[in-house]
Amino acid sequence: MMWNLQLILFYGTACCFSILLAVIVLMLAVCKPYPIVYRSRKEKCFINPVNSESILFPSIHDQPSVHLSVIIPAYNEEDRLGLMLDECLEFLELRSKSGTFKYEIIVVSDGSKDKTVQVANEYCKKLGIDKFRTLELEKNRGKGGAVRLGVQSARGAVILFADADGATKFCDLAKLEDSLESLIQGNYLNDYRSVSSKMAIVVGSRAHLEKEAVATRSLFRVVLMYGFHFLVWLFAVRGIRDTQCGFKLFTREAARICFENLHIERWAFDVELLKIAEYLKIPINEVAVNWTEIDGSKVTPVLSWIEMGLDLALIWIRYFVGAWKIKTQEDLNKTQ
């Protein structure tokens, strides 16, 4: 009897090991070590809604020509986008009137099927294409894919990506800017060209609101929240308490390097982005922001969390076995 049990354990272990080895071999054979991003001719251009002229976007590899780029990924956001843009523009226009500050907003419509593009284009008509541009993706790529293409089309020395729902108060950008200044010992508002080549990231955080979330959410959603936080800590990022807040500020060079290494294009892209930054030893600060839950979220409590959990496991195992790799600043500079 004991002999049979030992045989079962032996063959069971051998079988599990063989399956794991086969999975690793398959990943190494199928996965591309570095991201390959396809962008159609249409997606490389934006339209001037005044005269319908198609204009080529600049590249993240170009020198910056404005202080700040604001990237707003939007999927079917016709109802929420306007309010967010109004708050954003109130802040940015006030600042631009008081000095030499220049900004741009890029709304990335991620294959939207509603009137998101039309809403964005109305703002473009009012502000002009130097301040406002719409990047219309031909198919839905996921939030990470939309943010990546927006970042790679930006002109800013500093790049902010902000969610279209307006859940984070836009004036909290000032908090992120103060934190960025302490990291790089420089103020991009005074000297944006020199700051653009430095490396730093500041992430907005809702971690201080966790107790309130526990008090107001169902037990099931609380378990999901803590479960996701544990998986993030276990598989990817240990230095940041809130990886998912859609309010993150990058220097141009940090954005270029992180997004060119990014594989995940859906909900868990923030986690991989910060994992890449930690691997490359890019300085990161986490700053508490004012945040309010807005109706109309595209995140479904069960399916989205399961998808993110699977993505986290895949992020870890693919990097662990070497199926995915990260290019350093020097590696990327050689391939330009």
Computed CA radius of gyration, to the nearest angstrom: 22 Å
Number of domains: 1
- Structural class comes to alpha/beta
CATH superfamily: Spore Coat Polysaccharide Biosynthesis Protein SpsA, Chain A
| Relative helix content | 40-55%
Q: What is the spatial order of strands in the main beta sheet?
A: 5-4-3-6-8-7-9
Count up the helices.
12
Order of helices and strands: HEEEHEHEHEHHEHHEHHEHH
Instruction: Give the CATH level 1 class.
Output: Alpha Beta
Strand content: 15-25%
Distance between the termini: 65 Å
Q: What do we call the CATH topology? A: Spore Coat Polysaccharide Biosynthesis Protein SpsA, Chain A
Give the overall silhouette: globular
Count the E strands: 9
The average pLDDT value, as a whole number, equals 87
Main pleated sheet: 7 strands, mixed
Low-pLDDT stretches: none
The CATH architecture can be given as Alpha-Beta Complex
Q: What order do the helices and strands come in, and which of them pair?
A:
Layout: H1 2-30, E1 45-48, E2 53-56, E3 66-74, H2 81-97, E4 103-110, H3 116-127, E5 132-137, H4 143-151, E6 156-162, H5 173-184, H6 192-196, E7 201-205, H7 210-216, H8 219-235, E8 247-251, H9 252-260, H10 269-279, E9 284-288, H11 303-321, H12 329-335
Parallel strand pairs: 3-4, 3-6, 4-5, 7-9
Antiparallel strand pairs: 1-2, 6-8, 7-8
Helix pairs in contact: 8-11
Keywords:
336 residues; alpha/beta; Spore Coat Polysaccharide Biosynthesis Protein SpsA, Chain A; seven-stranded mixed sheet; two-stranded antiparallel sheet; globular; glycosyltransferase; endoplasmic reticulum; Glyco_trans_2-like
